[in-house]
Structures are given as structure tokens and as C-alpha cells.
Amino acid sequence: MARILLVEDDESLRRFLAQALMRAGHEVTDYGDGDAAHDCVQSFRFDLLLTDIVMPGMDGIELAKRAAEIDPNLRIMFITGFAAVALHPAAGAPKQAKVLSKPFHLREIVAEVERMMAA
Description:
Layout: E1 3-7, H1 11-23, E2 27-31, H2 34-43, E3 48-52, H3 60-70, E4 75-80, H4 83-87, E5 98-101, H5 106-118
């Protein structure tokens, strides 16, 4: 079981992802924006940050950079329709981050989380 911080501004997608990950046995804390998630990551420890990139306020890349500074052992996975942005070196995303492009199947994301936690 992993403690997952899920950050996605699309409420219905966030709800579906959270439910799928909880059914798979993970503990999920979810937020709709990067600023609120950043406040949370300063106070609580997580195993995985699962975040969208394009969000209002603090975007997912900035959130990931700040979260990695707080906890260098935090695993990071971006879920995005803009994979090229995350993969571009100028974006500054943490190098160890995994990128999963939208659209994806819920089983696919659960399997990727399992692989990341097993590594």
C-alpha cells in the first residue's frame, strides 16, 4: 500500500482515479490544485505524487520540484495530455519522474503505480 498525493483539477477524473487507487489498496489524499497540495506535502509524508501538469495556480511541474525538495525520496508521476512539455529538459521536471499520457485506462494507471512502488 502506498500513500498517494493525487493532484488533478478535473474533478470527475480526480474522483475516478482516487476510487481506482483506493480499490487497489492505496491511501489517497486528493486536491484540485497545486497550491493546496503543496501546503499538504509540507505537513504530511507521501510515497507518490501523482499530478496533472496543466492546472490553475501552481502547475504540476512546479509542485513536483517543490515536493522533491521537501522529500527527495518522493516518487513522482505526471498524468498529462501534454507529455512533450513534461519531457522537455527546459521544463525542469524532476528527472526520475514518470509521465503517463492522457487518455489512459484506470487499470493502466494502477499498474504504473504498482510498478513505481515496487522499484
